Amino acid sequence: MLKNNLGYPRIGAQRQLKKACEQYWAGKTGREALSGVARQLQEEHWKLQLQAGIDLIPCNDFSYYDHVLDMSLLLGAIPERYTPVVTDVKGNTETDLYFAMARGYQRDGLDITAMEMTKWFDTNYHYIVPEFTAGQQFRLFSNKVFDAFSGARQVTGKIPKPVLIGPVSYLLLGKEKEAGFRKIDLISRLVPVYVELLNRLQSYGAGWVQLDEPFLAMDLDEAEKAAYEYAYREISRSCKGIKILLTTYFEGLRENASLAAGLPVSALHIDLVRAPEQLDAVLKTIPGSLSLSLGVVDGRNIWKNDYRSSLALIEKTVAAIGSERTMIAPSCSLLHTPFDLDLETDIPGEVKNWMAFARQKLQELDELYRIAAGETALLEANRLARESRRASARIHNPAVKARIAAMSEADARRHSGFDVRQPLQHKRFGLPRFPTTTIGSFPQTDDIRRLRAALKKGLLTPEQYDAEIEKATVEVIRWQEEAGLDVLVHGEYERNDMVEYFGEQLDGFLFTRNGWVQSYGSRCVKPPVIYGDVSRPGDMTVRWSRFAQSHTERPVKGMLTGPVTILQWSFVRDDQSRRETTNQIAFAIRDEVNALEKAGIGMIQIDEPAIREGLPLRREDRQNYLEWAVKSFRISAAGVQDETQIHTHMCYSEFNDIIEHIAAMDADVITIETSRSQMELLEAFAGFRYPNEIGPGVYDIHSPRVPSVAEMLGLLEKAAALLPAGNLWVNPDCGLKTRKWPETAAALENMVQAAREARRRV
Ligand code: GLN
Ligand code: ZN
Q1: Does ligand 1 come within 6 angstroms of the Cβ of 527?
Q2: What distance in Å separates the CA atoms of residue 161 and residue 208, rounded to the nearest whole number?
Q3: DSSP string covering 362-385, please?
Q4: pLDDT of residue 174
C-alpha cells in the first residue's frame, strides 16, 4: 500500500516565498535570490515528506505564483500581448514573462494588463485563468517540471511524482477570448503536447505522473466526457512507460464514476472526505488494472483524522482489490491547509490535540499505513483525542443548541412585508431620491495600520488606541457630511478584517499565529478556526456605531458581517453541518443587530460578499444550499422593527442564476458591484422585477481611477431605465479600505454631484 501525497503548501512555514517574491517585484533582489529561496523551500518540503515516509513524493507542485499559470507557460499558452516583455526589454527572462502574465507589466514603456484571476473551485485559492483563441497553438515552453523532477530526485534519492493539471481540466479552467470556437475542442491540439511532455518526463526517468482532473468530479456535458475518453486513450496509446495517476477532488464522481474508472490510466484518486459514499460505486466498476488512491485525510481543514473511519474505508478497499492496488492520500493537495501545527504556541493544549496541519497530516498517512499493517495501538491515542473533542465542554454550549433546536419559521421573517416597511422607513429617514452612501470602510491609511501594530506591541494602551480611532472616526464623519453624503458610515477603522473582527469577539472561534494559507500569488490569509458552538458574549460593534451616530444628525449605518461570509472565510467544524454552524452564527449576529437597534441605530448593513462563493460545485446541490444560506441571513436580520432599515452588500457580478434567492433575502436595501459590467447585470434584477431598494455600484473601487460626474450619471440613468427610480441608491461598488484618500475624495465628490444631477433629470 503506497503513501501518496498530492501536493504540499509552497509558501513556506515563515511565508518565505511571499517575502522573496515581493522583494523581487520591488526590484530589491535579483533572480538568483528568488530562485535560491524557491530551491530551498522545495528541498525542505521534499525532505519533510521523505522523512514522513511518503512513497509518492510530488514535484512541480511548487509554484512562484500559481500552478495553473505554470501550466500555461509549460504548454506555451502565452497570450500575444506579453511578447514585448521578452522581445523589447533587454535582460528580461522567462521569470519576468511569467510574472507579467500574473501581475501585468507597467514599465519600460510597456503597459500590459495581467491575466484574469478566479477562484479555484470552492476554495479560497485563486488561479490565473488560461486564455484561448480560435487559432490557439500549444508547444512545450518552460522547463520547470523537468528541473523539479531532477531536483526532487537528487534530494530524496527516490523517483518523484511530477504533478500536472490534466489536459481536459486545463482546458476547462480556461476562457475563450474570442468567439467562434469551444475551448473543449482544442483537446486534439493539446493532447500531442501532453504526449510529448509525458514521454520527455519518461526519458528523465519518471514512473508515476499525477494528472489532476478535478472536473471529473463536476457536472460534465457530452463533449467534455468525449474529450476525457479521447485524451486518455491517446495518452495511453502513445506514452507506454508512464503510469498515470488521475486525481479528482472537491466532489464525488457521482454519474461520472464509470467514465473515470474506465479511463486507461494506472490509478485513480478519489476524495473520500468530501464524498465517502463514492467508494462503493467506484469499487463496483473498477477494472482489474486500476489502482485506487483513497483521499482519506482532509486536505481542506485543520482537524485530526478519524482513524477508525479512515481505516474502515481502507480495509474495504483492500478487501476488494488488494493492498498492492491501494494507495492512501490526503483528499486533495495540502496547499489548502496551513503548514505546521507545532508552530502554534497560543492554542490551548486540549484544542491543539484535536488539530493537524499539513506536516501533521503527512504523519497521519504514515500512522494509517502502520495501523492497516497491524500496529493497532496507534488507534487508541487517536480515539482518545477524538473522544476528548467530542465530549469537551469547550465546544458544547447547551443554550446555543437549545436555541437552534427551538428555531421556527417566524425567526426568519420580518414583522411586515417590504411594501409595509418601505413607506415607514421613508417617513422615518426622509432621504432625498437617489440617496448617496458608501459600503462601509474608508481608506485604511498607514497611520491607522501603525496604530494597530503599536497596540499589538504594547506601545499603545487600549485606551490610547481607542482615542486615536475615535479621532479618525469623527474626522470621517465630518468629511462625509461636508461631501454631502446622505447616509454615513463610521469607516471601520477599528477593524483589521471583516471576519477576524467578529471571530475575535465571538465564542467558539480561535485564531492561529501562523496558520497561513495561500490565497493568490504572494497573498495569504489566516482563516479563523470555528471549533465550538458559536455565541456572542457581549456587544461587538455597538460602541463604535453609537459613537459615530452621536457625532451627526444624518443616519450612520451599523456595519456587520453576515453569517455565511463568516462561515465561508473560516476553517469550519467537521463534527456538524455547515448549515448548523451558520445558523449559530446567524443568531449571534441577530443579537448584535437587535442591540444596535436598541442603541438607536436605524440602518444596519449585514455584508454577505461570500454567499455566492459558497455555492456547491454540483448543480443539483445548489438549491438546498441557497435555501439555508438565505434563511440564515434572514435569521440574522429579522429581529428588528419595520422602521429599521436592513442593508446588505455583495461584491460580485454574476447574479442571473441566483437572483430569486437574493430577492428572498428580503434586505430593505442591497448594494452590489455593477460598474464593471456597465449596469448590465441590473437587467437580471429588472427581469425579475426585484422589489426592494438597490444601490448598483456606480464606480469600481478596485482601481485608483476617478470617474467623472457624467460617467456616473450615465450609469444612474441606465439603472433608472431598468428599475423604479424611487428604489435606487447611489454608492461605489465596494468598501474603500484599499484605496488612497485623494482618489476616494475626488470620486465620492463626483458621485454626490451625479446623484444631485440625477434627482433633477430623472
Ligand atoms: N463593509 C465592508 C467594507 O466596506 C465590505 C467589504 C466587502 O464587501 N468585501 O470594507
Ligand atoms: Zn464588497
Answers
A1: no
A2: 5
A3: HHHHHHHHHHHTT-THHHHHHHHH
A4: 98
Is residue 528 lining ligand 1, measured as CB closer than 6 Å?
Answer: no
β-partners of residue 647 are 605, 669
**C-alpha 33, offset from chain centre:** 30
How many Å apart are CA 696 and CA 705, to the nearest integer? 18
- The predicted pLDDT at position 262 comes to 97
609 lines ligand 1 (CB under 6 A): yes
* Closest residue CA from atom 5 of ligand 1: 735
Among 359, 375, 355, 357, CA closest to 367: 375
Residues of the chain predicted below pLDDT 50: none
**Ligand 2 centroid – CA 736 distance (Å):** 9
Give yes or no for residue 489 CB within 6 A of ligand 1.
no
Which tens digits make up the pLDDT trace of 659-709? 999 999 999 999 999 887 788 888 999 999 999 999 999 999 988 889 999
Give the predicted TM-score (pTM) of the model.
Answer: 0.95
Alpha helices in 75-186 (DSSP H): 83-87, 94-103, 144-156, 167-173
The grid cell for 295 is 483521499
- Beta strand pairing call for 603-607 and 645-650: parallel
Secondary structure of the chain: what % helix, strand, coil (to 5)?
Answer: 50, 15, 40
Q: Report, as residue numbers or ranges, the catalytic residues.
A: 702
**Per-residue model confidence (pLDDT) at position 739:** 92
CA–CA separation, 340 and 515 (whole Å): 8
Non-local CB neighbours of 460 within 8 Å, separated by 6+ positions: 451, 454, 468
Owner of C-alpha cell 498517512: 365
Ligand 1, atom 4, residue with closest C-alpha? 735
**pLDDT at 653 (0 to 100):** 67
**3-state SS assignment for residue 349:** helix
Binding residues: 119, 439-441, 492, 523-524, 569, 607, 613, 649, 651, 673, 734
Beta partners for residue 120, in sequence order: none
DSSP state of 185: G
CA of 286 to the centre of ligand 1 (A): 48
**List of residues 6+ apart from 222 with CB closer than 8 A:** none
Residue 656, pLDDT score: 83
Is residue 649 lining ligand 1, measured as CB closer than 6 Å? yes
Q: Nearest ligand, CA of residue 565?
A: 1
**How high is the pLDDT of residue 675?**
80
Distance 498 CA to ligand 2 centre (A): 11
Reported as half-sphere exposure (CB side, CA atoms, 13 A), residue 63 has a value of 27
Does ligand 1 come within 6 angstroms of the Cβ of 735? yes
Does the ipTM exceed 0.95? yes
CA of 162 to the centre of ligand 2 (A): 39
Total residues belonging to the chain: 762
Give the residue numbers of the binding site for 5-methyltetrahydropteroyltri-L-glutamate: 119, 523-524, 569, 613
